[in-house]
TrEMBL record:
<keyword id="KW-0349">Heme</keyword>
<keyword id="KW-0479">Metal-binding</keyword>
<dbReference type="GO" id="GO:0046872">
    <property type="term" value="F:metal ion binding"/>
</dbReference>
<keyword id="KW-0560">Oxidoreductase</keyword>
<feature type="domain" description="DyP dimeric alpha+beta barrel">
    <location>
        <begin position="27"/>
        <end position="176"/>
    </location>
</feature>
<keyword id="KW-0408">Iron</keyword>
<dbReference type="InterPro" id="IPR011008">
    <property type="entry name" value="Dimeric_a/b-barrel"/>
</dbReference>
<dbReference type="InterPro" id="IPR006314">
    <property type="entry name" value="Dyp_peroxidase"/>
</dbReference>
<dbReference type="Pfam" id="PF21105">
    <property type="entry name" value="DyP_N"/>
</dbReference>
<dbReference type="GO" id="GO:0004601">
    <property type="term" value="F:peroxidase activity"/>
</dbReference>
<comment type="similarity">
    <text>Belongs to the DyP-type peroxidase family.</text>
</comment>
<dbReference type="GO" id="GO:0020037">
    <property type="term" value="F:heme binding"/>
</dbReference>
<protein>
    <submittedName>
        <fullName>Peroxidase</fullName>
    </submittedName>
</protein>
<dbReference type="GO" id="GO:0005829">
    <property type="term" value="C:cytosol"/>
</dbReference>
<keyword id="KW-0575">Peroxidase</keyword>
<dbReference type="InterPro" id="IPR049509">
    <property type="entry name" value="DyP_N"/>
</dbReference>
């Protein structure tokens, strides 16, 4: 029996090779792990043998994807706390530093690395000299420690740091701190519900979503295992030992600039009263509470936030602008460049968390001047099976490309949130189903890359065998 990568996996009925795979896979790949409190430790190794011994001992503190899924169902049944998440990723340089590069994973972008000039050109990234100091040198590994409380997360983080040999150096540490709105849904620093739309790899998760939407999936969130899992070629048995490519990007958010841009857009478009909220929704594609703009003119979403929509009823973008962040990064079949089945292959499993302290309440209605202009942002994290076709494609060919989506006679412009490059002149109109015509220019860039790297998150079997 082999693992069928062409479809979703029912984990509750998995047996044979599929069960072995889940028992050796890291958590947080197939399904998000709680990480409201997160420490991301970026390491460089000085001694191969010591680094190997360190990773073997860290593996003793890790759980499998199977153990995580069991914890989630036990929590649903009886409540109670789960155990912390510990994840380990290696860069291509990291495999070499360990002397473990013989059969290492061969994704082209992974081998190139995020710091390579070629990567920078493709993604239009800022120069490495502008990154935070810890990201200017060669990174070998990342250790992620996540949990629901600061106390349990920090305790596990300290245990791991105690294991670190003197020959290894912590280049950087990021501390993620999740934030929620009044309904308890996770938000990012601009104030919008985030992490809602995901490719779902587990049959049980796809079924749960169907039940949320009366069984009618206008947008089908299901994605095949092959969109996130790759055989771990360096592991003892790549037939059952799998891993995933992991993107990390520290994205600083200038909240003050973004909130000012929302207000300016509302002014230029002549939006008044409650309708001013629509300016931000036109930038993101959803209102702050997550309501999709293409289905509703005001906020006031159902709970849970809807993800059951496409742009089929809004081909001309009279409701949700073409350049809205979620329309650029998932056109849901309306990108105009590819067959919808191929277009879906670009989606990745996003696992980000916000970072940074701020004096203001992100949910409060205060003037832009009271918002932070730096020091806060998103630790963007995502799992991919082919970096060049998922993360890199999304950033370079969709977000940074003013010509996407492809529409006759229209240049939609850059993704207003994450687009890197010349902003151009394309703008917004206030149409919502064909009302008044007023246009406004693009919004200024308020997200800046401060550092990042590509990793492979190997199987537990590989780490144990080091
Ligand atoms: C600070 C940076 C970012 C912010 C503030 C941000 C914000 C958001 C928000 C509010 C949503 C809507 C929630 C949802 O549908 O899940 C969203 C969705 C999404 N974002 Fe971002 N994002 C950021 C960076 C990125 C990056 C770097 C990428 C990829 C290159 C990305 C790709 C996506 C995708 C694929 C979706 C889901 C779209 C869909 O399926 O409808 N985001 N983002």
């Amino acid at each position: 029996m082999t693992i069928d990568l062409s479809t979703t996996l029912s984990w509750t009925t998995a047996s044979g090779d599929a069960a072995t795979m889940l028992g050796e896979l890291q958590p947080n790949i197939l399904k998000a792990h709680v990480r409201d409190h997160l420490s991301a430790l970026f390491l460089t190794f000085g001694d191969a043998a010591e680094a190997r011994a360190f990773l073997v001992s860290v593996t003793g503190k890790m759980k499998s994807a199977k153990a995580h899924l069991d914890e989630v169902s036990a929590f649903k049944a009886e409540g109670g706390a789960g155990t912390p998440y510990v994840g380990v990723g290696l860069t291509a340089a990291g495999y070499r530093a360990l002397g473990a590069d013989g059969n290492m994973p061969q994704d082209e972008a992974f081998l190139r690395g995020m710091a390579a000039p070629d990567t920078r050109r493709r993604l239009n990234d800022p120069p490495r000299s502008t990154f935070d100091p810890g990201y200017r040198g060669e990174i070998h590994a990342v250790v992620l420690v996540g949990d629901a409380t600061d106390k349990t997360m920090t305790a596990r983080r300290n245990e791991i740091l105690d294991l670190l040999p003197d020959s290894a150096v912590v280049l950087a540490e990021e501390t993620g701190l999740g934030r929620v709105n009044a309904r308890g849904e996770g938000i990012e620093h601009f104030g919008y519900v985030d992490g809602r739309s995901q490719p779902l790899f587990l049959t049980e998760d796809v079924d749960a979503e169907k039940n949320n939407t009366d069984g009618i999936n206008v947008w089908n969130p299901a994605a095949p295992l092959g969109q996130v899992l790759v055989p771990d070629t360096a592991a003892p048995d790549p037939g059952v030992h799998f891993g995933s490519y992991f993107v990390f990007r520290k994205l600083e958010q200038n909240v003050r600039r973004f909130k000012q841009a929302e207000a300016d857009l509302a002014d230029t478009l002549g939006l008044t009263g409650e309708d001013r909220e629509r300016a931000g929704a036109m930038i993101i594609g959803r209102f702050e509470d997550g309501t999709p703009l293409t289905t509703q003119r005001e906020d006031g979403a159902e709970s849970p936030v809807s993800n059951n929509f496409t742009y089929d009823g809004d081909r001309a973008a009279l409701k949700c602008p073409f350049q809205a962040h979620i329309r650029k990064t998932n056109p849901r079949g309306a990108g105009g460049a590819e067959d919808p089945a191929d277009e879906r292959r670009h989606l990745m499993a996003r696992r980000g968390v916000t970072y940074g302290e701020r004096p203001d309440d992100p949910n409060a209605d205060v003037p832009p001047a009271a918002r932070p202009s730096g020091g806060v942002g998103l630790l963007f994290m995502a799992f991919n099976s082919v970096l060049g076709n998922q993360f890199e494609f999304t950033q370079a060919v969709w977000a940074n490309n003013p010509g996407f989506p492809i529409v006759d006679g229209v240049t939609p412009g850059l993704d207003p949130v994450i687009g890197q490059g010349e902003r151009g002149s394309s703008g917004y109109t206030v149409d919502w189903g064909g009302s008044a015509q007023r246009t406004a220019g693009p919004v200024p860039q308020s997200v800046t890359l401060r550092g990042g790297e590509y990793f492979f998150m190997p199987s537990l079997a590989f780490l144990r065998s080091l």
